[in-house]
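Good morning,

Attaching, inline, the backbone tokens for the sequence recovery test we're adding to the shared suite. The designed sequence is right after.
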């Protein structure tokens, strides 16, 4: 109890002195587990068969030997992101050749500096870069969704990877934060995008594709003809291999934005950032084996009920949907498959939060900006 009161007193003092700048005080001592953040991950090294880096002293994102992985990074899903990174490294044949591109929200309670320090302390040898995603880039294009979490501007960062990442990065794997990889990510990286396709992802052609759009969309001959020359199948945008050269040349960011502008006027779908991708790419996606996205483990977008695995081998487990494994585990109400996520969890304490009108204090950073 004394340590909790001490933490509260420190947070209050910080707020009174410098509320706009105090975003990361860590509690010291005490055995209550508050504010201790993440454990340091084991050191994962390359095998002898791995390609050598151009510069062994300083790793550049432009190094052609690298595998590029892009993810979002924010305080709400941080625990999931850290577990996802850990899983990628743990199963990679060449972990030192992986470069992570983290997209951070402009107004997240945890600043990019705080996030960078946390990632570095958890993965001391990780090759990574953090980019700030300006929310005003997309905020006026976002419409209401079936679940409020889907309206987070950071969900739309994947639309802007061609603009955010360095021009020398011509290919990237995009991964959501609520998944773990249980296979060598090099296998996914080596996916060939044929016939000038821009993205690759597991497709699910048995799904009822019509449900992703409104009756008004399907009854409008001008809008619905977008699929006239295609055989569209549902795919989940949480796991994608993206050719950024073709993406930039084809200005696909603008194509997605055009559909978002129509949505603001006509209301043609309910599911946030997914439908614009379907409108632009469905029917022209490089089909990747289903093992690379065993999605839906978080249940639906309303109840978040337990789900079982799809038949077949598994390389990636994805808790898309409302239910997240770290939340259910902490609530002592886990689904059976949540225990498959648990071995990658490096979190070792609860977040210390003190809400005010201007700031949120996070227990994992340990310093003042």
């Amino acid at each position: 109890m004394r340590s909790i009161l001490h933490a509260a007193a420190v947070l209050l003092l910080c707020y009174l002195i410098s509320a706009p700048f105090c975003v990361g005080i860590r509690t010291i001592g005490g055995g209550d587990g508050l504010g201790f953040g993440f454990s340091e991950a084991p050191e994962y090294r390359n095998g002898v068969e791995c390609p050598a880096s151009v510069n062994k002293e300083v790793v550049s994102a432009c190094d052609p030997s690298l595998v590029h992985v892009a993810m979002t990074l924010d305080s709400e899903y941080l625990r999931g992101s850290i577990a996802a990174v850990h899983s990628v490294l743990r199963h990679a044949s060449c972990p030192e050749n992986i470069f992570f591109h983290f997209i951070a929200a402009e107004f997240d309670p945890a600043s990019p500096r705080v996030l960078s320090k946390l990632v570095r302390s958890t993965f001391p040898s990780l090759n990574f870069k953090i980019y700030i995603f300006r929310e005003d880039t997309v905020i006026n294009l976002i419409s209401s969704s079936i679940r409020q979490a889907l309206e987070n501007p950071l969900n739309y960062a994947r639309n802007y990877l061609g603009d955010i990442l360095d021009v020398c990065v011509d290919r990237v794997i995009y991964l959501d934060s609520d998944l773990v990889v249980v296979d060598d990510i090099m296998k996914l990286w080596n996916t060939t995008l044929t016939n000038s396709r821009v993205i690759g992802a597991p497709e699910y052609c048995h799904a009822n594709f019509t449900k992703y759009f409104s009756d008004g969309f399907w009854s409008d001959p001008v809008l619905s003809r977008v699929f006239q020359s295609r055989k569209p199948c549902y795919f989940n945008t949480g796991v994608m291999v993206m050719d950024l050269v073709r993406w930039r040349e084809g200005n696909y960011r603008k194509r997605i934005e055009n559909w978002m502008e129509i949505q603001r006027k006509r209301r043609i779908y309910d599911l946030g950032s997914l439908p614009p991708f379907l409108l632009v790419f469905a029917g022209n996606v490089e089909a990747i084996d289903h093992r690379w996205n065993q999605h839906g483990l978080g249940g639906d977008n309303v109840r978040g009920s337990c789900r079982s695995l799809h038949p077949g081998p598994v390389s990636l487990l994805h808790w898309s949907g409302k239910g997240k494994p770290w939340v259910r585990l902490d609530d002592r109400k886990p689904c059976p498959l949540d225990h498959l996520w648990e071995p990658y969890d490096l979190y070792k304490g609860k977040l210390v939060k003190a809400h005010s009108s201007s700031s949120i204090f996070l227990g994992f950073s340990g310093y003042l900006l």
